[in-house]
Specification:
The chain is 84% helix and 0% strand. It is mainly α. Helix 1 packs antiparallel against helix 2, helix 1 packs across helix 3 and helix 3 packs antiparallel against helix 4. One of its GO terms (molecular function) is transmembrane transporter activity.
Length: 104
């Protein structure tokens, strides 16, 4: 169950990272409230995951999921660059996440 909690925490991290773009510097109330709520969900599920997983592994995977998802959605939603070097670096993050899952 800890891995499920960690996955939910990682997906929630993507949500709040993308949500920050919509808050316009926390000047828009509804996106700000939603972003803060998703932040809380992310941290709560990370806390549940680290009860049973090594902290370093859980934190690295949590941030890796968040980074990967945020970059992909940034490319898709905000037309951020998707050049080859950037995509290769994202691939390295995926390799790291998979490696940590295999040893954790």
């Amino acid at each position: 169950m800890a891995w499920v909690y960690l996955f939910i925490a990682g997906i929630s991290e993507i949500g709040w990272a993308i949500g920050m773009k919509y808050t316009d510097g926390f000047s828009r109330p509804v996106p700000t409230i939603l972003t803060l709520a998703v932040m809380a969900v992310s941290v709560v599920f990370l806390a549940l995951a680290v009860k049973h997983l090594p902290l370093g592994t859980a934190y690295a995977i949590w941030t890796g999921i968040g980074t990967l998802g945020t970059v992909i959605l940034g490319i898709w939603l905000f037309n951020e660059p998707a050049d080859l070097l950037r995509l290769l670096c994202i691939g390295l993050i995926v390799v790291g996440i998979v490696g940590l899952k295999l040893v954790g």
